[in-house]
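lol ok so funny story. i was supposed to be doing the assay writeup but got distracted and ended up predicting the structure for this chain instead. priorities right. anyway since i did it might as well share w the group, maybe its usefull for someone
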Amino acid sequence: MQIVVNETFVKSRARIGNTAHLISMGLLILGFILSVVYPNYGVEFLFGAYMAMILALLVLSYSRNFTRRWGTRFRQDVQLVPGLRGLDNRHTMFNYPGPDLPDHLVVGPTGLYILVPRANSGTIKFDGRRWSRGSLGGGFFRSLSEGALGNPLQDVNKALTQIAGFIKKNGSPELVEGLEARPIIVFTHPDARLEIRNSPVPTMLVKDLRSVFRKAKETLEPAKMEELKRILGLEEKP
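and the output, tada:
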């Protein structure tokens, strides 16, 4: 399998997250200093301390959105690639191709796939309507370290809208006709356990991912496959 990573785009987004993180730390330090010295200078300094700390938390939340998606420790392509190892070179995986595309796409003889990863551990449950993970307390503390589970189906819908608009804009009418993106929700944490019922989208552990491609029938014509790979490559920019 061929792996394409838009490193320029990833580094630019990670840089934004790191910069925002440093700013939040600076605001926290400023807030602490103002809270210490305010008795000597008046209540305005205490108000400034509170404002600095509130801003620090907001900027920290903003930075985490970037670092958990593009930071070196959290990048999901590192977890997904081993799950696809063994596929032949007709398959190409595009990672972080651009701001207007899903983060992880696989193009091969069996079609176009959108991989929607989640790095959550513990027991992940879906009953056809609602996602949950273990006990309330355990889920809360895991969310702090791993990020929230959220609703993967919302991410699937967003990704489908993105890829449909992009292909319609950049692809030929022949490519657009009959092409259907296939989303897969993939849990990449080694300690994840799934209890999934009535999911409208295939949901699996990363270790089971390769079997999806090996069992699927070849439906994408070589010319369409190459065009699809070519236009996806157009988005490899920050």
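The helical segments are 7-41, 43-70, 77-84, 136-146, 152-170, 173-176, 209-215, 222-233. The longest strand covers residues 111-118.
back to the writeup now i swear
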